Amino acid sequence: MLIARNLTKVYQSGGRPLTVLKEVSLEVEAGGFLAVVGPSGCGKTTLLGLLAGLDVPTTGAVLLDDHDLTTMGEDARARLRAEKVGFVFQTFQLIPTLTAQENVQVPLELGANGNAREAVLRARELLARVGLEGREHHYPAQLSGGEQQRVAIARAFANEPKILFADEPTGNLDAATGQRVIELLTQLNRELGTTLVLVTHDAGLAGLAKTVLRLRDGMAV
Question: Residue 137 belongs to a domain with what CATH number?
């Protein structure tokens, strides 16, 4: 499902090159579960963005479901993400002026076969699945952090992605709420066969992964 070959990412900082990732390679099988761990600043979030096609490497290649992201333009990568990728951000990234249901409906209505009525039914189904039945018409500001993260997970699964990327999905949550989110992600991985790739500082969450990739100073160790 996902192959990365010798990924290197270099930024310019103060007129000097700053190497954030250096020759990182990995493979994740369909239905697999990879956790990326390491200290702050080691390149975890940069790697996740490259794997999801949100950015392109300076050198190296990323193949997502047999599509070479590094040879595709920005629009083509965006279309591929819409078809195959879900993404859960640490800071939720919900649209504040939309209700929970409307946030989940957005990717459904933007899809090629967007149908408003079907989008409503699918959004309600997903919110019920993540335990938010009865909260559909609440705005993000009216929801707790854990509830917002569950809305974000429901939205990420709206188009039934083949692969889900999550950046510190429990990072802004208390221990009890974080545990519920962990259970939800692993359940969806098992039941739907969705490939899961996440960045985490949570040792308990990393311990549930089939594979763990450790980064230090931008390199796989």
Answer: 3.40.50.300
